[in-house]
Each structure stands twice: as C-alpha cells, then as structure tokens.
Amino acid sequence: MRTSFIPFSAIIAVLIIAFLFASLPQVSHKTRYRVLYAIAIIMLLAVIPISEYMAENTQNSNSNYLLVLIFDIVVGYFCMYIAALLKYNILKRKNQALENALTEKQQKNVAILLEHQNEKQQALQQRELEWFADKIKMFTEEEQKAILASACAFAEHGLIITPSITIQLTNTCSQQDLMYFVCSAFFNMGKKRSDIVSFLSQVFPLYFPAGESVLAKKMPGIEKIKERRNKNLFQKDKS
User: Fold this and answer.
1) What tens digit of pLDDT does each residue of 159-184 get?
2) Can you name the residues that pair with 173 across neighbouring β-strands?
3) Angstrom distance (rounded) from CA 139 to CA 169
4) Which of 25, 69, 146, 183 is least enclosed, having the fewest CB within 10 Å?
5) pTM score > 0.85 for this model?
6) SS (H, E, C) 166-232
7) How far is CA 61 from its chain centroid?
8) Which positions ≥6 away from 37 have C-beta within 8 Å?
9) Are 225 and 183 in contact (CB under 8 A)?
10) Distance between CA atoms of 145 and 158, rounded to whole angstroms?
C-alpha cells in the first residue's frame, strides 16, 4: 500500500500544480496552455514507469495497481482538456478582435459611401430643381416661389406641402407640359410614381381637378419622360 501511495501522491501534487498554474493571471494564456499540454504528455508517458515501479512490489493488489494507472491517465487527459480550453479561448478572443476590427472598418466604409451618396444625391436634387425652376417661369414670381418651396420639401424630405396660394392655370403651360416638368425632375431623383401623382394633385389642384386616380391614368411613364427630355436636350444642343 505504501508503494502505491507514493505515485498516487505525486499524481495529486501534479494535478494541484497544474490547476494552480492554469489559474495564474500573471502568466499569459499561451504559456499556460503550452505548459499544461507538456504536463499532460508527461502524465500519459508516466504510465510506463509507474507501472514498472508498482510491479516491483508484489504487495500491491491489482485494484490499487489499476486505480493508480487510471488516475494518472485521467489527470493527464484533464490537463490536456484545460490546455485545449485555454487555447480555444485565445483563438476566440483573436477572432472576436478581428471581427470587431473588420466591423469597425466596414462601418467607416459604409459611412464614407453614404456620405458620398448623400453628396451625389444633393447635387442631383439641386440640378433637377434648377432645371424645374427654369421650366416654370411662365407662372408669376409668387407662384414660382410657392411651387419651388413645395418641390424642395418633396425632393429633400419626401413631404408634400400644399402651397400657401393656389397655383392658377396659365395658357403657356398645359397639363401635359406640367406633368412632364414635374415627372422628369422627380423621376430622376428616384421618387415613386404614386408620390409624384400626389404631389401634382395637391400642388396643382386647378390643373388636375379630377383627382389622383384620373391623374395616375393620364401620367406618362418614365420611358416616355426620358425620351422627351433627351429629345429636348438634343434640340437644344443642335440649336
């Protein structure tokens, strides 16, 4: 019994040392899992000398002999498990740090892209509003200001604000021309057809007294609008 007690005590001592070493905060995770792997390998290799040592003493029973060997193997695998767990935590932290870095970089790229898109969108809106302002000069100055105020609110915020004054009919701007001016500007800004119908109906009620349902049927499609605008640009360049 005394012979089996010596290796049994040595194994317990190694287990305690391994447990304490694994919990040391001063030692890096990398060093801890490497040392624990080394201890695990030593414990598994120690099965041979322990068995030889105990076999020399015939007083050891078979149960004591097997118990010490099994305990030695269990401790070796336990140290290996703790080492693998520490290594996994290191890899997990590295992956998390990498994901955080990539996420931060992606957020910066998205912010830059959105800022660039916003600048392009603002420039597009400004260009189309200037084109629209040039097309509605047949209205009075007061009416032009009211129309442009509603157009700006619709372009920038998607809001349809009814002008403070009623836009009167004018002989120099037909219903078809007005639909072309409004649709051409707002189609290029990416506005929806249904929203443009609402804008026309609410901002120019005298031009479209039948309501939005009738206006939606009369309003030309985006292809016809583009075709007319390209034709006008070609004629302008030619002149």
Assistant:
1) 999 998 999 999 999 999 999 999 99
2) 170
3) 9
4) 25
5) no
6) CCCCECCECHHHHHHHHHHHHHHCCCCHHHHHHHHHHHCCCCCCCCHHHHHHHCCCHHHHHHHHHHH
7) 66
8) 79, 80, 83
9) yes
10) 18
67 touches 50 (CB < 8 A): no
Closest CA to 3 of 65, 70, 74: 65
User: CA end-to-end span of the chain, whole Å?
Assistant: 115
Task: Label residue 136 left, alpha or beta by phi (over 0 means left) and psi (-120 to 50 means alpha).
Answer: alpha
